[in-house]
Write the structure tokens for this entry.
Amino acid sequence: MQVSFTPAEIAAIAQPKSTRGATTATICGIAALSDAAPGDLSFLGNPKYKTTVAATRASLVLLPVDYAGEPLPDQLFLFVENPSVALARICARIEQALWPKPAPGIHPTASVAPGARLAASATVGPLCVVEAGAVIGERAHLQAQVFVGREARMGDDCWLMPGTVLAAECVLGARVRLQPGAVVGSDGFGYEFTAGRHEKVPQLGTVEIGDDVEIGANSTIDRARFSRTVVGEGTKIDNLVQIGHNVVIGRHCLLCAQVGISGSTTLADFVVLGGKAGIAGHLAIGQGAKVGGGAAVTSDVPAGAFVNGNPAIPLQLERRLVILHQRLPELFKRVGALETRLG
Amino acid sequence: MQVSFTPAEIAAIAQPKSTRGATTATICGIAALSDAAPGDLSFLGNPKYKTTVAATRASLVLLPVDYAGEPLPDQLFLFVENPSVALARICARIEQALWPKPAPGIHPTASVAPGARLAASATVGPLCVVEAGAVIGERAHLQAQVFVGREARMGDDCWLMPGTVLAAECVLGARVRLQPGAVVGSDGFGYEFTAGRHEKVPQLGTVEIGDDVEIGANSTIDRARFSRTVVGEGTKIDNLVQIGHNVVIGRHCLLCAQVGISGSTTLADFVVLGGKAGIAGHLAIGQGAKVGGGAAVTSDVPAGAFVNGNPAIPLQLERRLVILHQRLPELFKRVGALETRLG
Amino acid sequence: MQVSFTPAEIAAIAQPKSTRGATTATICGIAALSDAAPGDLSFLGNPKYKTTVAATRASLVLLPVDYAGEPLPDQLFLFVENPSVALARICARIEQALWPKPAPGIHPTASVAPGARLAASATVGPLCVVEAGAVIGERAHLQAQVFVGREARMGDDCWLMPGTVLAAECVLGARVRLQPGAVVGSDGFGYEFTAGRHEKVPQLGTVEIGDDVEIGANSTIDRARFSRTVVGEGTKIDNLVQIGHNVVIGRHCLLCAQVGISGSTTLADFVVLGGKAGIAGHLAIGQGAKVGGGAAVTSDVPAGAFVNGNPAIPLQLERRLVILHQRLPELFKRVGALETRLG
């Protein structure tokens, strides 16, 4: 990370409610409070690290408005409502400075079919393939070695990283990010067993991804049998996640790494699935429900519930059962003692 | 899905035993009974939806021969032995109409080594790489950005989707489909620990994939240490599945998403592994055995058995233990009560 | 595998302490003792197969120095300290013979940015992309369709297989192997929930991979939020493994397939994680610790410990609890009997 911002430039992005102290340093990096050196920006994101602020050597510190301490010499405090959010905003600006989108246009090594419709402001990088009938929105960025199938469409400001696949007829909203190797629109897993063989059921539907969705590296989202597999606006999907055909995911969900969702299951909005959680097919997961890491969900989950374990049950019960399970040796002994006493 | 078939064209594919009613509609889509609109084809695949047939607005309905109801006006019933199979056959035809294979030949942006042998009817799409000595069968379709390593071979009518890798010397039968990002022939995971380090054991074997196998998006199949990793004819593998080196999988198995099979394990024919199931190495899974989703198999499974849980045990026992496990709070109370009574 | 070595050539690589017998055969293959035919090399890697040596038809057998038997006619025994290590060394030579690295240079279909710095001995294969500022070491091999982002760097003798991604600013040591589809430097999974939405926290850090690391097919390693995600020297990572942002992995660890490690967790040296194991975030796993396949680690693991289960606990206890769990039906009966006796 090679960056260079003046404290005034940082303040212009963070828009602090108030400030304390001053620094002449140029900001060249970001670091945790305890790791920071002069020239670094740091922040108090979690109140439990409050005591480390006094000792930080960072030149500039983002702090919550109720923080009471004084800066060191040549140190500037910026007081903001939410230091983590302010930091995210600063980082977004740094990201653009670090990795600016290449100029619009089609790289000479890309293979774009005659019938494709590309916004003039879009960038199609080296060795990408865009098939006939595909539609690419304004400022979209196909970085390198991306595949966009026939009649596939994407909205404005999408970023498809190297090696991503958007299969035929699938649709991305605006500002969608596909991390490297993500696949949108692979065939659903459907077969009819007949005459001693599994005959393929062609998967003729599509995938529709809402605005502001992010899909992690090497994750896979299957196209529907007919109709659509859906990922709602603002949902974020981590790496190596599998979404089966005809799944419908609501808005602003979080799916951590290696999650798997079987076919035709629906998630309402604001659902959170921990890493490696698996959801069986044809289930309904209610709004705001949470599933613990590694849990195996085999029945519907009501809105707001937090389930865990295999099979997944309400978290409180699951925690209690884990403790009792570890007391089984004691229980066997107690029962044996009772039997001995009764002769 | 933009299609257009006459009822007569559909009937020619489905070859009904008998028909009832008539329709003048052109068939433009496929939908579930309750979702269908005029112009749609629908079907009764599962008897439990029988009562929804009477209310469907589909113009054409595939029904089992024993269905007794009458069609609406402008509605045609086709009676077939297995509506799901008939539908699959119709969908296969639609798939060809939707996504016709491009004309044979090598795209000018593909990189094909001089020593490769391609059938004249094969299609090598944009930005594919075919190394020396590779053999590509009749009508095979390398869609885009596919890699075929040296001396690798594939039979007739294979379809390798974007970003797939068939590594050196590995072999595909006929009609094999690789979904986007699938890797056939990565190195097995083998090391010797010597002098405080893990020294790589080169993986010199290959992978052999039988006819009619399908491999899901971003799944990985490792080459053998020596000899071969094998996937038998007709076996279907979902997304993000890992097959270790020297694994031998029988014919007509189903491996659901995110399954993992460790090295040297063998599966007989017709085995079914639920999503996220894991099988330890050097085990034998018998013919027709079933493993539940998320199960961890740590010992051989006899033919015909259904195992579940971690570690996997026979399903009946596992179900019973889950119920008793959830009654642990009660059991602790009962034992406590006994102790109190005995003073 | 098409190879041809004289017994003298094999002996020159294996450097035996002593030999017994002789053969005129040319060595054309490698096979297990019981599968080997004349012309094959075989080996006794595991003492439990000792009795199969006498019956093997292999022309050349690698044996431990304390093996007492006599060779058949036209059979040569080579006695070495560790037959498996000797075999690995022979296989490495065969691997080079089978799959020689192409000549140095940039394939005409590759897209290399002007500002990239490539060693003259490096090979950049067909349809690779190398962005500006990237640095490629001596004899490095970018096989085909590889992506190397801006300012990324790799040491000498790296091998990046087809479809691999080394994202911007990430760093590989020397002799690193990336299996097909591996992604180094995808964004970490970080969001701030604000105003009812998950706002992306840009991931501005990098990934640093040590010397002699191998990363499996379609595995994903996320870049740090700031600073670095680290994989230490000599660590081997299997297929479909997920490494979260800011994870620090020590030297000479083994991570089996489908492992997942959440953000900011640290592994000391020589840690072994079984297949499908999951480690929660912000944990510390001590030196030489072992985690069983499918285990879910939710708290720190001390050096040298072996944990298993979900949640993971010491292996001995976990094994005992599994057995007692399977005796729950009996325990419920015994408690019922006690209750009956007490009336």
Remarks:
- The domain at 105-317 of chain B is CATH 2.160.10.10 (UDP N-Acetylglucosamine Acyltransferase; domain 1).
